[in-house]
Structures are given as structure tokens and as C-alpha cells.
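Lecture 7 notes: from sequence to structure.

We start with a single chain of 108 residues. Read the sequence below before looking at the structure.
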Amino acid sequence: MIKKMGYQWQLRQLMAERQMFQTSDLVPLLAERGITLSREQVYRLVTQAPQRMSMETLVALCDILDCTPNDLIKPEIVNIQVRKTADDETSPAPSAPRRTVIRRPGQS
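Now the structure, written as C-alpha cells:
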């Protein structure tokens, strides 16, 4: 097995624990800390795990919610299958089946 890391994004849960149920509630609080995001951007930030985020935004969220980055991001191990090759090296299992090509004698 290859040890692959993932994470759970806990922003929505932390907001709910602090009686913040509208994603738009974050817009002015972020703006007070110099972070200008549209309502749509904040909605995506709350409802989807971000792939990238500025440190300034992370720090602002921690300040707003009185939490640490560890409270917002829960690391988790996501194991993936590995197959052994003929020379005994490991490589990730193919994600899609390979298409087989049948060649008849005389065809290239």
C-alpha cells in the first residue's frame, strides 16, 4: 500500500457550533480582516474542501472562529491499491482498464 494523505474540511461544522448558519455571514467578517471574497467564493469555501487557500484566509478564518488550523483541517490516510510489476517494483494500480489491441498476422 502507498500511504496517501487526504483531509476533511471542517469549516461548516465549526460555523454551526458558533451559531453561524449563513455562508454570507463570513463575507463581512473576512472583509474586516482584509480578505475580500465574493459571496459565491465564500459559499464554495464553506461547502467544498479547498484545494488551495492563502495563509491570510486561513488565519482570518481561525481568528473569526477562534480556532486553530488543526480544527479546520482533519488529516486522514487514504490508501490506494498497488500492484507489483514483473521486476518486483510497486506501482499504482491503473485507474482505468487498458484497451487491448488484437493484431493479426500481416497487419501493423
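The radius of gyration is 22 Å. Keep this in mind for problem set 3.
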